Amino acid sequence: MAQRHPDPTHPAAGPVPAAALERHLRARATEFLRALRAHREAGAGAATGESAEAARALRRSARRLSAGLHTFQPLLDRDWAQALSPELAWVSGTLAVEHGCTARLERLLLALHRLSGAPVFPGQAATASGARTAPAVSAPAAVAGGSPAPAGPPPARPGADAPARTATTTTAAPPAVLTGADRGHLTVGAAKAGALLDRQLTLARTRAHSTALQALGSSRFHAVADQVAVLASEVPLAPGAAHADLRPPAAAARDRLTDAVAALPLVTAGSPYNAAALIHGLSPDPAPHPQDAPWHQVRLLLRLHRYAREVLHSGADGPTRAAAPAAVDAALRAAGEALDRHRDAAEAAAAAAQAARTPRIAPATAYALGVLHADQRHEVEAARYAFQRCWRTEDLGTS
Amino acid sequence: MAQRHPDPTHPAAGPVPAAALERHLRARATEFLRALRAHREAGAGAATGESAEAARALRRSARRLSAGLHTFQPLLDRDWAQALSPELAWVSGTLAVEHGCTARLERLLLALHRLSGAPVFPGQAATASGARTAPAVSAPAAVAGGSPAPAGPPPARPGADAPARTATTTTAAPPAVLTGADRGHLTVGAAKAGALLDRQLTLARTRAHSTALQALGSSRFHAVADQVAVLASEVPLAPGAAHADLRPPAAAARDRLTDAVAALPLVTAGSPYNAAALIHGLSPDPAPHPQDAPWHQVRLLLRLHRYAREVLHSGADGPTRAAAPAAVDAALRAAGEALDRHRDAAEAAAAAAQAARTPRIAPATAYALGVLHADQRHEVEAARYAFQRCWRTEDLGTS
Questions:
Q1: Cα distance between residue B360 and residue A362, in whole Å
Q2: B136 has a pLDDT exceeding 60
Q3: Residues 6 or more apart in contact with residue B129 via CB below 8 angstroms
Q4: Has residue B22 got a pLDDT over 60?
Q5: CB within 8 Å: B268 and A381
Q6: Using CA atoms, how far apart are residues B99 and A315, in angstroms rounded to an integer?
Q7: pLDDT digit string, tens, across residues B194-213
Q8: By C-alpha distance, which of B78, B64, B69 is closest to B27?
């Protein structure tokens, strides 16, 4: 058996033929079409579990298709790839907004719980409006070394405290632990902040849902779906690309990533508690964090790099594929998750700041939103630190 | 020349005679009396620079006298030491309150500047009330890696932007950068938060000043001063203590410190961004941070250990004293400074939370106070991290 480097992205490994790209794109296109059918069968109007799962699969395949067309464009029919790649990005982007609202609300309510020193699994409790039911938000495990959480009120309905994610199809009530008239006005503030965020983000989610439905019914989307259907059976390669090597375009994607990472302030990020992320926390600018943009850009480039590696690995033959360096993939995934957290925390902080601009809110509500905003900006800083650690400890398949 | 261990606190070093303690206490008592005289001559009623400097010297010597009587009590007249040590602690504690208010206000205004992304040396600007002048608070150097600070408004009076610390005897205006009607309501919030904190902490400082003056004129204080005057010429040792070794009581102080540090959650503190310090940031309890208490206790024990080392080192003969391990002293000082920051940030966070409970404040003010509170609690967490690093990298003369 010939000696072959186990990592096809490594320069010493042999060339990866364009057929691997064709296989990859056809498989992703088939997934896209299957997800689209599942989404339609689940009933596009209802925000059911199947519908959400189908939308997730649709986003996933659209992202990979778009990335594949972008990264390997030199090997593909140029006009076709340049036209379809952004359209697929539009599809995944449009579908992502609704999920983003749901995740952001959950993140913010969890943070409100944590900041209130709430018990790990707060029970349900009747709120002032009575008819609402509080979702049992599963708070993060108590941080080791913190002081013991204060004893929360006993669940008003002890049978109803089974762990469940925040219900996104019903209006979420303020976190259950924040009820009780004897708990002082700051706690009321946290509860009111939660209710305000819930209203605003649920409204945004509903709007995003409508927008996504409209998009899926638009002629623009039908044109995309038609092109993906063609792609599922035939990939339009560039003339003479059938015998080309996939590694140079993948290496270019990797280089774009390493260049962008090199421009990040990693020395600052690696020094804990540098307070850089909150430096404009009280800025009057509604979008006061231009410092976030390079990190968001690296997040996208890291994703392109990961997807390009997927293509190369799927193109390697059996034993080589099995021997693909799982450690590098794991480190890349961890780095990507840190940048996802960075994006999520930055958007959650912006949502808290946005909610604080609501006219006529109570001071206690605004105070809680301020604490929440700062907390999320510190999560931004923590995510940068985590990314720097991932990047430093591994070469992440970039060399 | 006999081999002698250069560190008199080391078990291998020779005994340190009680005469060193006598010298130390007499010297500190003399300093106390000199500072008291300077304070009276400076005019006790006026908050002048000399008066503040004399109060600082009075606190400094009272702390060391009290610590010496406490740590070396086995070698001293027991009833006398047990009675005088707390009285001296009362003197230094009473005098410290005023200084604490000043430092807290300065810390909070600096943080408001930093959080607003203010330029390093904001200029002066006319405020709404016109008559006030804004102090040019020297903001910390811009954190490397942060985005560039937004261009502030040009100083209204360009000649007046010389760096100066926050004036504490005049009413400080909101930070200068926060003026200008076009800067959105959150900036107004930061300005109002600064003005509110200024009012509240200036009032507290004024009250503390009066309390300190009353204390210095009280018969209780005169009794303390009389005893210190006696101490300046004669130290009442316990029977048979003249030939005793100072090292065992100093070692006991060291052991109390190491035991208290061992009980701290140092593993959590050493893991950056553990979010432990803010876990009760939205708790309804006005004093929601019982987790701080063990750290405050370690701060006091570390000070006792440092002062005991001062006594032992002053008792060592010439060459040994010169060879005292400066690295250990520097590390101890750094650890103590981290715990001072811990205390200062915890108290500043409490002051921000307290200000947010003021009735009828604007939501924007409350929001800024919330951000400020969270920021200071993160400083608490950062200080714990810094302490853990100091403690880990050095044995700090405790072994």
A1: 9
A2: no
A3: B173
A4: yes
A5: no
A6: 70
A7: 999 999 999 999 999 999 99
A8: B64
Spell out the domains of chain A, with CATH numbers in brackets: 18-137+162-393 (1.40.20.10)
Q: Do A268 and B146 touch (CB under 8 A)?
A: yes
Cβ within 8 Å, pair A145-B268: yes
What is the pLDDT of chain B when averaged over all its residues? 80
Set of chain A residues whose Cβ sits within 8 Å of the Cβ of B263: none
Nearest to A236 by CA among A61, A88, A18, A87: A18
What's the CA gap between B282 and B203, in Å, rounded?
26
Q: Are B280 and A366 inside 8 Å of each other by CB?
A: no
**Residue tagged 């008819």 (tokens):** A131
CA distance A89 to chain B (A): 29
SS3 of A7, please?
coil
Task: Assign 3-class secondary structure to chain B.
Answer: CCCCCCCCCCCCCCCCEHHHHHHHHHHHHHHHHHHHHHHHHCCCCCCCHHHHHHHHHHHHHHHHHHHHHHHCHHHECHHHHHHHHHHHHHHHHHHHHHHHHHHHHHHHHHHHHHHCCCCCCCCCCCCCCCCCCCCCCCCCCCCCCCCCCCCCCCCCCHHHCCCCCCCCCCCCCCCHHHCCHHHHHHHHHHHHHHHHHHHHHHHHHHHHHHHHHHHHCCHHHHHHHHHHHHHHHCCCECCCHHHCECHHHHHHHHHHHHHHHHCCCHHHHCCCCCCCCCCCCCCCCCCCCHHHHHHHHHHHHHHHHHHHHHHHHHHCCHHHHHCCCHHHHHHHHHHHHHHHHHHHHHHHHHHHHHHHCCCCCCHHHHHHHHHHHHHHHHHHHHHHHHHHHHHHHCCCCCC
In 3D, which of A332, A346, A339, A333 has the Cα closest to residue A376?
A346
Q: Which amino acid is at A333?
A: R
Give this prediction's pTM: 0.80
Residue with the larger pLDDT of the pair A255 and B47 = A255
Q: What is the pLDDT of residues B71-112, one digit of tens each?
A: 999 999 999 999 999 999 999 999 999 999 999 999 999 999
Measured distance CA(A330)–CA(B30) in Å, rounded: 66
Structural contact between residues B99 and B63, judged by C-beta atoms closer than 8 angstroms? no
Type of residue found at A120: V
A119: DSSP letter: -
> How many A/B residue pairs have CB atoms within 8 Å?
224
Q: How far apart are CA B138 and CA B175, in angstroms?
A: 10
pLDDT of the residue at A136: 36
Judge: B283–A112 Cβ closer than 8 Å, yes or no: no
| Whether residue B185 has pLDDT greater than 50 | no
Residue whose tokens read 């570390």: B302
ipTM, 2 dp: 0.79
CA distance A346 to A350: 6
**B289 contact residues in A (CB cutoff 8 A):** 147
- Tens of pLDDT, residue by residue over B313-372, are 887 654 454 455 678 888 899 999 999 999 999 999 999 999 999 999 999 999 999 999
Mutation site, B112, B267, B282, interface A, largest A CB count within 10 A: B282
A282-286, B107-111, B236-240: least confident range: A282-286
Q: Rounded to a whole number, what is the largest CA-CA distance in chain B?
A: 76
Angle subtended by helix axes B326-356 and B184-216, to nearest 10: 110
- Cα angle value A67/A72/A73 (rounded, 5°): 95
* Distance in angstroms (rounded) separating the CA atoms of residues A251 and A237: 19
Check: CB of residue A123 under 8 Å from CB of residue A136. Answer: yes
Q: Which of B353, B354, B357, B356 is nearest to B373 (CA)?
A: B353
Query: C-alpha angle A361/B197/B298, rounded to 5°?
Result: 110
Put simply, the answer to whether B366 touches A371 (Cβ < 8 Å) is: no
Whether the predicted pLDDT of B9 surpasses 70: no
